Amino acid sequence: MRYADYLRLEGTCSIVLGLALALVAFPGLLVSYDAWWAGLLFVPGVLLALAAWARLRRGVPLLAAGRWLTERPLAGATAGRPGLDAGRLRRRLLVETAIWIAAVTAWVVLARSSGLLIFGTGLASAAFGAVQAFAARGRVRAAEREAGTAYVVAERPGLGTPSLGTDA
């Protein structure tokens, strides 16, 4: 699977997951809590933490959102390393997203707690997904044009960023 396509899919999954979490934990729907507006603060908090981490680890400019998630994988791409099967990776991402939605929904329905945390996390997940699906994907496409090669996902660990190969 091409890395740009992976970022679009994983970003879309994060957006869907985030919106589902925000909906299930929306104040007054299944859970009630004070200061629901504090959930909105999760978005800039997560994005600022992501930007700061990229800055500290790789020297990425704070406003270069497309590079926050892609700098290390692109730098570590290995020529000729084959990509993972797109169909299997797509199914894995979709199943993971569905499991997370089901598990968190079950938690909210059964426990009737953690509303603010889940609401804020949902909004932040959607924002993170937008960075992946749009800014990071655009960065990868620009890097592909510049290098004259396509980047592919060669390995995707359970946690962390994928390892890349190139088609050259």
From TrEMBL:
Keyword list (alphabetical) reads:
Membrane, Transmembrane, Transmembrane helix
Transmembrane feature ranges: 12-30, 36-54, 93-110, 116-135
The protein here is known as Uncharacterized protein
The organism named in the record is: uncultured Solirubrobacteraceae bacterium
Q: What is the lineage of its organism?
A: Bacteria, Bacillati, Actinomycetota, Thermoleophilia, Solirubrobacterales
